[in-house]
Amino acid sequence: MSSDKPARTQWRQLGLDLAPAPHFRREDFLVSPANTAALRLIEAWPAWPDHVLVLVGPPGAGKSHLAAIWAARAAADTVSGRLLEAADVVALAGRPALVIEAADGIGAGEANLFHLLNLARQQKSSLLLTAQQKPDAWGLATADLLSRLRLAPLVEIGAPDDDLLKMVLWKLFRDRQLVVDAAFVDFVALHIDRSLDMARYFVDLLDRAALAQGRPVTRVLVREVLREFGGDGDEHA
Questions:
Q1: How far is CA 227 from CA 187, 191, 192, 231, in A?
Q2: Could you tell me the sign of the dihedral formed by the alpha carbons of 43, 49, 54, 55, in that order?
Q3: Cβ neighbours of residue 5 under 8 Å, at least 6 residues apart?
Q4: Three-state SS for 98?
Q5: CB atoms < 10 A from the CB of 22, how many?
């Protein structure tokens, strides 16, 4: 048992790093009933019903991936909602297309977002706003801003269903050239949070742990990683 501690410490330290940045290309986007409507609207641009589109969904559902697909199609720049307060609104509005990621985190940037929406409409530029919740739940103090956001088309992307989560896991394992079977993928999907971000992070941890310990990726290793991070690794052995 003592010989195992250094290896486990090593992979835990490696696991503190974030997983590698995912590929946000269109060909890497896996379609399911949870995201079909959102994908259709993203790909319908520039034939949107309005210049502004609000994309809403829980963490890890694929909002950033869809935003990246649209940004590539529309040659759009991207700005974080929390940085909007200090941004040059006139310069942003002068761009033909813009993504505002995590727009529900604008905080003190409400005035800038309000002006940006007005300028974008005047100049007929396109805006894609991503958020975890609908605008009514953002806690906005600016009534006119909320009114404009309510008028904008909104599309929701749901949490990944079981089939989508398993498809993503399959792809992640293949990308790392890790040989697993369907029962193994089912086992992992059963024990992690239903989130695409968690799937990426967990497969990264498994791979790092296997490399650090010189072991194959097995259910035993899955249970060890789950235990380290407070999961239910002792179940369904």
A1: 15, 11, 12, 5
A2: negative
A3: none
A4: strand
A5: 17
Q: What are the distances in angstroms from CA 131 to CA 51, 62, 137, 167?
A: 17, 11, 10, 24
In this structure, the answer to whether residues 144 and 207 fall within a common structural domain is no
Q: Tell me the CA distances in angstroms from 57 to 8, 154, 219, one per residue in order.
A: 35, 11, 31
d(CA 166, CA 147): 39
Number of folded domains that form the chain: 2
Q: Are residues 42 and 143 in the same domain?
A: yes
Check whether residue 132 and residue 213 sit in a common domain. no
Strand 126-131 relative to strand 154-156, pairing:
unpaired
CA 176 to each of CA 98, 101, 205: distance values in angstroms, whole numbers, following the listed order: 33, 29, 12
pTM of the predicted model as reported, rounded to 2 decimal places = 0.77
Q: In terms of domains, do 75 and 167 share one?
A: no
Taking only the tens of pLDDT, the chain with its 237 residues reads 333 433 444 444 444 444 455 668 888 888 888 899 999 999 999 999 999 999 999 988 889 999 999 999 999 999 999 999 999 998 998 899 999 999 999 999 999 999 999 998 899 999 999 999 999 999 999 999 999 999 999 999 988 889 999 999 998 998 888 889 999 999 999 999 888 888 988 999 999 989 988 989 999 999 998 887 655 544 443
The answer to whether residues 128 and 116 belong to one domain is yes
Pair 209, 100 in one domain = no
Q: Is 68 helix (H, G, I), strand (E, B) or coil?
A: helix
40 plus 147 within the same structural domain: yes
